[in-house]
Amino acid sequence: MAQELDTTLAFIDLENTGGHLERDRIIEVGIILVAPAGEPEVWSTLINPEIRLSPAISTLTGIDPADLAHAPTFAQVAEPLREKLAGRLLIAHDARTDLAFLRQEWRRLGQVFTADVLCTLRLSRSLFPDEKRHGLDAIIERLQLHSAGRHRALTDARTVAIFLARLYSEQPARLLEACRQQWQRPALPGSLDAQTLDALPDRPGVYLCYDEADSLLYVGKSIRLRERVWDHFYAATSQQREMRLVQQIRRLEWIETPTELSALLLEARLIKERQPILNRRLRRRENLFTIAWEGIERGSPRIVPLRDCDGGELYGSFANAYRARQSLRRLARRHGLCLKALGLEKPTSGPCFAHQLKQCRGACCGAESRLLHDLRLSAALRHLRIEHWPWDGPMVLVEEGGGQRLYHLLWQWIHCGYRADPADLATLWERREGEFDMDIYRICFNALSRNRGTWMPLAQLLSPSGPQTTATPGR
Ligand SMILES: [Zn+2]
């Protein structure tokens, strides 16, 4: 195949500390070079990632953290690696992920890396459209390939080479056609050109697609903007939904963000505020309802509009009161809770309807104490709980990455906006708007529990002495 394509093929595989492009690092590279003539050349090295290797990855790959400690860093292998790969066609399974990790490592060194790639995952999808699984394990199984093991860079690179050789020997014409399709760039609408799309940063952010009338069609987010937008056009050839979007796009806007966290916040906010025509989820809802409950032995839960909440614990957000009641009913059935104690049935004397069906354990007729019932209710509701805002005042989530910094203003889980300059936050706070939104809550709560971003009180950021320490939420 190297002769056919008249180039040296570089089968490559990487092992990484994880799948997160910004945080994770490469720990192993394996390459098999196949030139149009001559013997294949094999090259591999462990790489010291300069961050911790999780036990899970260590078990998966069998790579011992101690071995990495003595391995060269990426900076030390960057030059020989570049020599191996320069001018080669990189062939890998899910090639764009490997390419992205390589580019990211070189970016850390202030260098640019590009290469032509061929993705055997995409080849498998296009040559075996009836198969559901296209991972390397599935391919080894399907084609009964001889693999000397998995999850080490060189053995995986070898598996990819064997896979491609098999395809070439069995169906060369179809294979070359599939390769050509992969390299062919999709057609773009007249007002957009490849240059515009290539100008998109290879970084996290949100993108906005507009139609001919300049109405907002779609808002999306990605950790790699350029790739994600190109994906829409690639996918449009096979997917109806993508086709609808792509046929209407006339103009693109994008906002680069420091990391994925800002992209998530911006996406949720933009979709809610601007209601793009083609975003199916996250529609703006004015009157969300929630379940409010004072707590154990303090009465029944109440179903109230989220905006009127005045204390007590809150559980879930629902499109309307009916949905909230349905959710409580489901919990009652699943956990044998009492319809009367939940306020879902009128407080008459005698057992509730569910107790007559033996579905309620009898808080309504003394068969179960209210304390026990409420303890069980509390456990049943736990997964819906909206945590209290853990601070006294508004907070600023400072997000940093790729030489960029953004300041998100948050108050009671409400995203009040964001600025690139902290000096603008005072005006933003004065003019704050926005309402509670479950998506924003989840994004923020996840960020907090995973320790992403830096949270500091607005007051501290605006104080003349400036920011000094970062705050941790009091629990
Ligand atoms: Zn009952």
UniProtKB/TrEMBL annotation:
It catalyses: DNA(n) + a 2'-deoxyribonucleoside 5'-triphosphate = DNA(n+1) + diphosphate. Keywords: DNA damage, DNA excision, DNA repair, Excision nuclease, Hydrolase, SOS response. It is an enzyme of class 2 (transferase). PANTHER family: EXCINUCLEASE CHO, UVRC/OXIDOREDUCTASE. InterPro entries: DnaQ (IPR006054), GIY-YIG_endonuc (IPR000305), GIY-YIG_endonuc_sf (IPR035901), GIY-YIG_UvrC_Cho (IPR047296), Ribonucl_H (IPR013520), RNaseH-like_sf (IPR012337), RNaseH_sf (IPR036397), UvrABC_protein_C (IPR050066). DNA polymerase III contains a core (composed of alpha, epsilon and theta chains) that associates with a tau subunit. This core dimerizes to form the POLIII' complex. PolIII' associates with the gamma complex (composed of gamma, delta, delta', psi and chi chains) and with the beta chain to form the complete DNA polymerase III complex. Its EC number is 2.7.7.7. The keyword Hydrolase applies. GO terms for molecular function: DNA binding; DNA-directed DNA polymerase activity; exonuclease activity. PROSITE patterns: GIY_YIG (PS50164). GO terms for cellular component: excinuclease repair complex. SMART domains: EXOIII, GIYc. This is Excinuclease cho. Pfam families: GIY-YIG (PF01541), RNase_T (PF00929). Residues 202-280 form the GIY-YIG domain. DNA polymerase III is a complex, multichain enzyme responsible for most of the replicative synthesis in bacteria. The epsilon subunit contain the editing function and is a proofreading 3'-5' exonuclease.
